[in-house]
Amino acid sequence: MPSETDTASSYYALTKHICAQQAGLQHHKQQSSGEEINNTDNQIWVEDSWTEEEISQVADMLSSEKPALRAKAHQIQKYEAEAALNWDRFYTRNHSNFFKDRHYLQRVFPELSVERLSDTSSSCGPFVLLEVGCGVGNAVLPLLEKNPNLHVWGLDLSHVAIDLMRQDKRFANASRQGRAKAAVWDITAGSCPLICTNMKVEHVEGVADGAIFLFCLSAITPEKMKDAVRNVIDTLKPGGCLLFRDYGRFDEAQLKLGTSRGKCLGDNFYVKQDGTRCYYFDLDDIRAMFSELEEVELSYIRR
Length: 303
Description:
Layout: E1 12-17, H1 20-23, H2 33-36, H3 52-69, H4 73-81, H5 83-94, H6 105-108, H7 114-124, E2 127-132, H8 140-146, E3 150-156, H9 159-167, H10 169-176, E4 180-184, E5 194-197, E6 200-203, E7 208-214, H11 225-233, E8 236-245, H12 252-258, E9 264-266, E10 269-271, E11 277-279, H13 283-289, E12 294-300
Parallel strand pairs: 2-3, 2-7, 3-4, 7-8
Antiparallel strand pairs: 1-8, 1-12, 5-6, 9-10, 10-11
């Protein structure tokens, strides 16, 4: 199983906000690549750089081999129809053991630091953080544990993942305090959902001061991505922040999938061995889909 640092080369970093001044939020820019490098003798990673020639060579390789390796039309339709089922199978098989808790988020997204969340909560009421594609809670549960004033919503396509998240002691304790809620939501199927918790029906449209969208959009068929992004944006209050990360174009995993028979579902879109899917973005993809938001930072992270 790859570690966080092994897979860091595939990450995009994108932080966006809407009318930040309306919410009294100040954005602190992420550390530059050089500042993030461990300066001790035991470096965790070093920043990688790609030349235009290298990028062109990889693009040509994937383009030339793709037609013969593309999945059949009926296979592509099957993977789309069974998207939720394949994620349920994934979490049934792996439970809460596959992904590690994302403790690094407070470093790469200063908006999620305990100090920032505490300051915002004290001045504007509880800070409401919503995660789309929360899985079993590896991103929000560590934040919930560290900040007693934080309120969290966790939404995911998989019924199994949501059930596992609800069983976590950190979620259960916060839920009893009224600080944690979770529900199943297919963000491609309709508008913001109604969530039933403790005999109460709630709507998530416009509820969040901040939303986390990590490695979720890539699992959706490209034809449905724009609507999915629109639904996620609708969960934000005016002035809310959207924090996004996902897989980047020409990641090593894409090169492996792109040269394997039957794995290519479309341009830069592939199916993994377990039936879940993954799209590899470039910066223009992201900029186009999030165009209605103010862009704070948009960059590759290559390590």
